Every structure is written in C-alpha cells, then in structure tokens.
Amino acid sequence: MPPLDTIQKGKENKPPRLLIYGQEGVGKAQPLDARVLTPAGFVPMGEIQVGSEIIGSDGKPHKVLGIYPQGEKEVFRVTFRDGCSTECCDDHLWFTQTRGERDRKYPGSVRTLRTIRNSIRYGTHFNHAVPRVAPVEFKRNEALLLKPWLLGIYLAEGCAGSCITNPEKDIQEKIIASIPDGDKGTVHEDDVKITKAVNSSNIPSRFRAALRELDLEDKISDSKFIPGKYLYSSVADRLDLLQGLCDGDGYVVKPGSVEICTASPQMAKDIMFLIRSLGGSAVCTKRPGKYRKDGVVHIVKDSHRIYGVFTNGLVPVASKKQTGKWGAPEWMIRNRNSCRR
C-alpha cells in the first residue's frame, strides 16, 4: 500500500463537481478537469457519462451507473509518497489501512477524507495507506510492430536504428530470436546488429522500418520515449516491455525492487506510468550527469533514476543476471514466516 503523504486545499472557484457512485453509499466527488483512468487511457471527469467504463482498483473496466452534479465544493489535493496525486472533496470515501492496523494485521476500513486529514500522521510516520491498483487491463488492442521485449531492450541500449549493445550472451540470443521475420542478427563482441536477411535493395530492414514508423529511428538517449500503443497494450505485453527495459538499463536493488536509469525526461515519465499500470510503485529522482577523468569533471546529460517496487508477484526482469538477483520481497517473506506453524 502506498502511504498518503500530504493533503492540501485546492484552488477556489473550481468548476462544478460530479459525484460518481460505485457501490451503494460510496461516492467520489472530483473536479470536472480531474483525470479519470479508463480502458483507453486518462480522460477528464467531465467527459464521463452513464455507461462509460472506468478502471477499478482490481484493474478491470467497470461501468458508471450514475452521475450526480455537486455544484461547487471545497477540493483537496491528495499526494502520495511516490509523487502521485489526485483531487477530491472532504466526503470522498477511501479504503485505507492505518499504521496501527498494519502492525496488528488488521485489514483496514473505509474512511472519509475528513477523517484521514485529521489523522494523517502517526507520530513521525505516515499513517494511512491505500491498496495499489491491480495490473490495469486496457482495451486499445493496437497492433504492435515489434515484440515488446525487443523494443524495451532497444530503448535501453539501442542506437542508430539497427544496433543493440549488451555483452550478456542470453540477451544477445534473445534479441536474435525476437527480431522480425526477414531480418537477421549478427553478433560482434558486445553488439548485435540487425539487418535484412538478404541485402538486395535499398529497402530498410523490417526492424528499422518499424522504428521509423514509431518515430524512434533517429532518437538518441535523451529523446527516446515509449510509444502510446505499447503503454496501453495488454498486461503481458507491458510486462515484456518493462523486462526489456530493465534487462538493459535496470539494476535489481534488492528483492522486489529495481532501478532504471535514462537520460530522457519523457522516457522517465513513460517508465513510471508503465510500472504503475502494472501495479507497482515508482519514484523518480534527477541527478546531474557528470564524471571525473584525469582529475577533470566532465558534465554530461542529466540522469533520471526510476525506483520501482513490486509487491504483487510480477517480476520486471528476465535476463539470467537480473533474475538471479530477484527474489521474494521482504514483506512476502515476513508474511510467510508469520503463518508457519
């Protein structure tokens, strides 16, 4: 559960609010410009209608049964420790687990934001935590030009539209096994070069043509991004994509957590969305890029470090080196131990 960090009053003179009901007696009042996650992505609250599908906490689409305009209400911005935030009124109902409930293994209960505001801290600790969403089931179903893992490893360690650099033998073999039909992969030391199987014309390889269509062929480290059709693909495809990214630019910090580095601000945002859409938590820090050589400090591109944590059983790495470092998160081990006879 990600802890609640801060709750701030919103701006005055906000547009009218809507109250969307789930189960009887449970409502969510939010500004019309608040973003709501649907099977096709985020849309403004004001576009939601009766019959619209929105994503529930189980990651599945659910239909809206009723919409009730609320007029003007005082709005609060709720911010979580990982930087995520949303807006809602004081009567908004949340399922939370307090620190005392976590310590005593109690499941938690439903509380209004007003109640949460009045007990936001437990001494010096965050008090309330909410369940993370289950892996989100989007419904775009757009055709993917490249296998997700291959695109992930290219975004992490590829360049010039044809070369991927990685010294690990199992990754090199997986790259060759993943390239489009009609292309071939050639290994030279740490590089895998992807070309056409038959060099008979000026037509590019299918791999390069796919990158060109995705607008990634000429992108370098600080301008790469994840195409939308991949960010909103199936759970299995998004997991493959994340594994490709982590196998290339990732590092298993400890069981259950991984760190990914990128020089691209947009890529950092995309990776955080990807992790969160799979039920993980993600925090990004930015560090000045520099290195020292012969006593001289050289300034390079800034590094965006994304720290991702998974407690739902998903494994965001696939290479031999990375999976060898991965294991059950500490909280899972503790729970197992507490249940032994």
Instruction: State the total count of DSSP E strands.
Output: 22
Can you tell me the CATH class of the largest domain?
Alpha Beta
- Output the strand order for the largest sheet: 15-16-18-17
Helical fraction equals 10-25%
State the secondary-structure class: alpha+beta
Shape: globular
What fraction of the residues are assigned to beta strands by DSSP?
Answer: 25-35%
Low-confidence stretches: 11-26, 336-341
The termini sit apart by 27 Å
Q: How would a crystallographer describe the biggest sheet? A: 4 strands, antiparallel
The whole-angstrom Rg is 23 Å
CATH topology of the largest domain: Endonuclease I-creI
Q: State the oligomer.
A: single chain
Which CATH architecture of the largest domain is right? Roll
List the helices and strands and how they pair.
Elements: E1 4-9, E2 17-21, E3 27-31, E4 35-38, E5 41-44, E6 53-55, E7 61-63, E8 67-71, E9 75-80, E10 85-89, E11 93-96, H1 99-103, E12 109-112, H2 113-117, E13 121-122, E14 125-126, H3 148-157, E15 158-159, E16 163-165, H4 169-178, E17 183-188, E18 191-196, H5 206-213, H6 228-231, H7 235-249, E19 250-254, E20 257-262, H8 265-277, E21 281-293, E22 296-309, H9 320-325, H10 330-338
Antiparallel strand pairs: 1-9, 2-3, 2-8, 4-5, 6-7, 9-10, 11-12, 13-14, 15-16, 16-18, 17-18, 19-20, 20-22, 21-22
